[in-house]
Amino acid sequence: MVVVRVAGELDTAAAPALCGALDDVLARPGGRACVVDLTGVTFLDCAGLHPVLRARAAACRSGRTLTVRGGTDRAVGRLLELTGLEDVLVWRVVG
User: What span, in angstroms and rounded, lies between the C-alpha atoms of 22 and 17?
Assistant: First the structure.
C-alpha cells in the first residue's frame, strides 16, 4: 500500500502537485492499494478535490483501490458531503 499525505490548503495552487504525485504512484507497477491521506488538510475546494477524483478513476481502470482518509474536522468531510462524493469515494475518518 502506498500512502500519499497532503497537508495545508488543497486548492487551485496545490492541485497540480497532487495530480503529479498521484499519477506517479498509479504509474508504478505492482501495488494494489493507494491511500490519499487528507488528515492534514486545513482547506479543500473543488479544484483540490479534482486530483483525488481523477486518481480514483485511474485506480479503478487499473484494478486498484484508492481510499481517502480524513480527520474529524470538517475541512474535507463537508465538501464531500456537499458534493455527494462521500458515497462515491472510499472514505475513512481517522482520529
Answer: 9
Instruction: Provide the whole-model pTM.
Output: 0.90
CB of 34 closer than 8 Å to CB of 1: yes
Nearest alpha-carbon partner for 36 in 73, 78, 5: 5
The CA-atom distances, in angstroms, between 62 and each of 6, 48, 66 are 23, 23, 11
C-alpha cell recorded at residue 73: 474536522
Question: What pLDDT digit, counting tens, does each position of 55-87 carry?
Answer: 999 999 999 999 999 877 788 888 888 898 888
Q: Which three cell numbers stand for residue 36?
A: 490519499
Which residue do the cell numbers 464531500 mark? 80
28 phi and psi, to 5 degrees? Answer: -70, 140
Who's near 38: CB < 8 A, 6+ residues apart? 6, 10, 44, 68, 69, 70, 71, 76
**CA–CA gap between residue 36 and residue 53 (Å, rounded):** 11
